[in-house]
Write a sequence for this structure.
């Protein structure tokens, strides 16, 4: 086979491994982007963390996400999965400061590495009220996730008060994996929470389709008010507030393990990357009351447990919402959802949804035509070396960072224009 023919064959296989809502999007642009993913904070000192060379034990720095407070300070917040929230005074910082140390509360082990500190969101009015919200696995109770509110210290506004914790919600899970963990405030001011299906495989208890359970859902709560004995309120327009037997916190359901979701700051659309099981990874646009199919479907396809009889290739029960995009496990095996780029440093990325695959170490920018309901481009962003991307995040200017784990401490990267 000639070199040119080989390239054509590879391109054909790559196209077949990706699938869009349009199914036959012949115009899908898959050209690699001339951008750069560069390490940042290369000289930063991380208090409380030591490299493998200093300890003799491999203890990678696990930066689980990047966030900003939206308070005009320019600070970047970088929590570790072990439970330390660091703050960095801008993109040129040389020293990380401990904003909040939660290691006495957070359970993390390399053997159960979907647990730990998983989510952080600052209140939209953080500058005025000093409130932040966290999602973590409880050290005192196995397989229990906690959503809490903390407040800034009255004595030192550059730090959170570790004694100020107010527990809002406790989620007991049957297994250690599929924790979800993303917290995000919507343009409506409500807090959205991504919760995994409870773990193991196949969603054995059917949590994803069970509206009486919070597992396998996106939740939506009002943290500024209270309902009865709850430390939060239920928004009156949540889709299941009047449905008998349903949890009123639920915004959307039928999700396996949303690993990162984010609102497009321009359109308000909520994007989510839902980690697949056997064959398909998917990207969803989360809608009010939407059923995204798990564990009846995986991506566009019927979900059939291994060893079970095959079923006809149908979409399953009516009313389930298709992903806008899926990719086969020939491409990658664990999606890391990102954010829609609205920064100014890379104009050609405007409106692109940035995401990655943790296993294949690939990073992409995806463009979606909302009017046509069709993905029109899915372009790879080259990386300087294989990076198992754990999460994405933005600074106050809307510029995008990627995080990973690293024994040398180089756990944060930034997408930049090509030099």
């Amino acid at each position: 086979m000639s070199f040119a023919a080989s390239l054509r064959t590879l391109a054909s296989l790559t196209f077949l491994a990706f699938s869009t809502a349009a199914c036959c999007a012949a115009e899908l642009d898959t050209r690699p982007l001339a951008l750069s993913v560069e390490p940042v904070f290369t000289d930063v000192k991380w208090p409380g963390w030591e490299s493998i060379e200093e300890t003799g034990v491999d203890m990678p720095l696990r930066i689980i996400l990047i966030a900003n407070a939206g308070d005009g300070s320019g600070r970047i917040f970088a929590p570790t999965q072990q439970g330390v929230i660091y703050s960095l005074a801008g993109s040129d910082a040389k020293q990380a400061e401990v904003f909040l140390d939660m290691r006495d509360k957070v359970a993390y082990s390399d053997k159960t590495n979907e647990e730990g500190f998983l989510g952080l969101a600052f209140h939209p009015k953080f500058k005025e009220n000093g409130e932040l919200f966290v999602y973590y696995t409880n050290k005192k109770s196995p397989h229990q996730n906690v959503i809490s509110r903390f407040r800034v210290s009255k004595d030192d506004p550059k730090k959170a008060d570790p004694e100020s914790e107010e527990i809002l919600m406790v989620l007991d899970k049957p297994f250690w994996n599929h924790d979800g963990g993303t917290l995000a405030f919507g343009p409506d001011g409500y807090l959205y929470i991504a919760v995994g299906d409870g773990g193991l495989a196949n969603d054995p208890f059917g949590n994803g389709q069970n509206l009486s359970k919070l597992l396998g859902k996106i939740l939506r709560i009002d943290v500024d008010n209270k309902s009865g004995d709850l430390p939060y309120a239920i928004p009156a327009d949540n889709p299941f507030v009047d449905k008998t037997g349903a949890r009123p916190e639920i915004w959307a359901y039928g999700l396996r393990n949303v690993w990162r979701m984010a609102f497009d700051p321009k359109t308000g659309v909520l994007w989510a990357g839902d980690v697949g099981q056997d064959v398909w990874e998917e990207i969803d646009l989360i809608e009010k009351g939407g059923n995204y199919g798990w564990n009846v479907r995986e991506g566009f396809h019927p979900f059939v447990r291994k060893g079970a009889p095959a079923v006809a290739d149908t979409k399953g029960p009516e009313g389930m919402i298709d992903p806008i995009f899926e990719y086969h496990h020939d491409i990658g095996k664990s999606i890391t959802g990102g954010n829609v780029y609205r920064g100014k440093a890379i104009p050609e990325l405007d409106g692109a949804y940035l995401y990655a695959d943790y296993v294949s170490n690939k990073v992409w920018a995806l463009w979606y035509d909302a009017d046509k309901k069709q993905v029109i481009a899915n372009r790879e962003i080259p990386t300087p070396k294989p990076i198992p991307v754990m999460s994405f995040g933005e600074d106050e200017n809307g510029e995008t960072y990627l995080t990973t784990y690293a024994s040398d401490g180089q756990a944060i990267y930034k997408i930049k224009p090509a030099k």
Remarks:
- The two ends are 36 Å apart (CA to CA).
